[in-house]
Specification:
It is a single chain. By secondary structure, this protein is mainly alpha-helical. It has two domains: about 35 residues; about 90 residues, no CATH class. It is built from four helices and no strands. The longest helix is centred in the last third of the chain and has 35 residues. The radius of gyration is 24 Å and the shape is flat.
Length: about 120
């Protein structure tokens, strides 16, 4: 039996087909995750960068995150209802809570990067 013929005609095309299917499946799943972002997520993310700009480096991250949730909720609704006309109801409250939770994860990551960068600057000096 000629194994090279079986390899060329059967195994390689099957492997390429399976690989293409898996790649397509993985990239579609990633696109679906990105689609779940809402206008409230975008508003909250923009507010996060405002918070990062005023973060005092001597405050623990956990304390800052706890205090920032109230600020985020208040500012988010000012922008969402004032600028975009989003009504405040049970559904939008829940979406806002989800957006705030996602954003606080981003805030924590940004603060950790900021602290690491600050430590690197101190080490160089």
């Amino acid at each position: 039996m000629d194994w090279s013929l079986i390899l060329d005609k059967l195994i390689i095309p099957a492997a390429v087909t399976i690989g293409a299917y898996v790649w397509n499946h993985v990239t579609k799943r990633k696109e679906k995750r990105e689609d779940h972002s809402s206008l409230l997520d975008e508003i909250a993310e923009n507010l996060i960068y405002e918070l990062v700009d005023v973060y005092p480096l001597n405050v623990p991250v956990e304390t800052y995150l706890q205090n920032s949730r109230g600020f985020l909720r208040e500012k988010l609704w000012k922008v969402a209802s004032g600028k975009y006309g989003i009504p405040r109801n049970k559904t939008t409250e829940r979406l806002a809570d989800i957006a705030i939770e996602r954003s606080t994860k981003l805030l924590a990551a940004q603060i950790i990067k900021l602290k690491n960068y600050n430590e690197q600057l101190r080490a160089r000096s």
